[in-house]
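Appendix B. One record, verbatim.
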Amino acid sequence: MQTTWRTGARRGALASTALGITLALAGCGDGDATAAAPAPAPPASAAAALTVKDPWVKATGAGVMTAAFGVLVNGTGADVTVAGASSPASPMELHEMAVQDGKMVMRPKPAGFVVKAGSTHELSPGGDHLMLMNPGAAIEAGDEVAFTLTLGDGSTVPFTAIAKPFAGAGESYAPGMSMHPSGTPMAPMAGATP
């Protein structure tokens, strides 16, 4: 009896396997060769390959301009343009530091930041940065601040930056402040309102 049970069990298992294979093969083809071809993958967006490495934001009081920094990493084979930035913490602008009339000045960068294919672009104090124009609340050391970058193709890259106390070279993001090329802050520019 025990031998019959084993033989019967084997036959049942073989029959089940054969039936499963037959059904699987029958379901794979409907006679139309184009239906079996896989659909092409959608093109990868720039957002999927642009990342922000080591993001941080300078801690500040409510209503006091500050900036966010980090390294933009482009993992694609094409240049990517960061066209804008937003945050629930503050209205934002893309800014750069540039020499103007022998002085280092901060100014908006409306053309955005271009991150070359397969390369990086540093956002740093005294260089390109994400400007928080008027934070609605204090940003204290240890706070996590949410940001979203908007790219030239309309896609977005969300990230979170940690707030850090940072004195740096004593730079100021107050309106009208200029900086000597060495990074030392100078008096407000003529005609600027604080």
